[in-house]
Amino acid sequence: MVRNDSGGLSPKQEKSGTGKVVELVGIVVFALLLAFLIQLFLVKTYRIPSGSMEPTLDIGQRVLVNRVGMNFGDPSVGDIVVFHPPAGADVQPARCGALDEGNGSQRACSTATPEESDQTFIKRVVGVGGDRISIRGGHVVRNGRLQRESFINACGNGFGCDFPAAITVPEGSFYMMGDNRGASDDSRYWGPVPKDWLIGTAFATYWPPKRIGVF
To answer: Which residue numbers delimit the Peptidase S26 domain (predicted)?
Structure first.
């Protein structure tokens, strides 16, 4: 080791050590900035807070959500989407924009309240603009055809399992339902979700390790 007369490191070595610290700090800052930008514009992570998407997604499971895809196209029926629901979802019982639909009605809610909620939900798209939707035994009837939904939990005979009168999903909106049909607060009660309120499409789960996979 080269030392100066006082027994310390030489100025050249001190400069080299300082440079390494600055370089390390720069790498850390860059990595944090990159992670922030990815979360802000590309991919975001979410933790599943309830059992409304069982058996597909369990409480505590974590998913990756593609945010940029919303700029290039609309989600399709069957996609799992993260979004802000209408403000009608903030009260119990949920409030539909059409007072004669939703809770206690023959029709599922067709009209959202105009205000957007601050809550973040994750559900499955079961209908898009122009689709005619009714519910039979917890299963979606889309444009007159009973959908094959082997991924859902049975609804049973509880409230919300049957809305026999069809409603039409407004253009530019999406009808959302949880896979746990007997225990999901969804579009049946507070209506369709405008595209502007969508955050992104879930494309993979990364926690717990035994549930790692893509949708």
So the answer is: 22-207
| Those residues with Cβ within 8 angstroms of residue 161's Cβ, 6 or more apart along the chain or in another chain | 135, 137, 138, 155, 181, 182
Q: What is the pTM of this model?
A: 0.81
With a cut of 70, say whether residue 127 has pLDDT above it.
yes
Give the domain ranges of the chain: 1-43, 48-214
- Active-site residue list: 52, 123
The SS3 of residue 80 is strand
pLDDT tens for residues 38-72?
454 468 899 999 999 999 999 999 999 998 877 67
Task: Look at residue 30 in the predicted model and tell me its pLDDT.
Answer: 45
Closest CA relative to residue 90, chosen from 185, 195, 199: 185
Looking at this protein, which amino acid is placed at residue 177?
Answer: M
Domain covering 48-214 in this structure, CATH number: 2.10.109.10
Residue 211 has which token pair? 């549930």
Q: Which helix (H) or strand (E) holds 166?
A: strand 163-168
Residues 6+ apart with CB under 8 A from 197: 83, 84, 85, 86, 116
* Full DSSP string of 77-140: TT-EEEEPPBGGGGSSS---SSTTSSTTSSB------SSBPS--EEEEEEEETT-EEEEETTEE
Residue 24 has pLDDT above 50, yes or no: yes
In angstroms, the CA 126 to CA 37 distance is 31
Number of other residues whose CB lies within 10 A of the CB of residue 22: 10
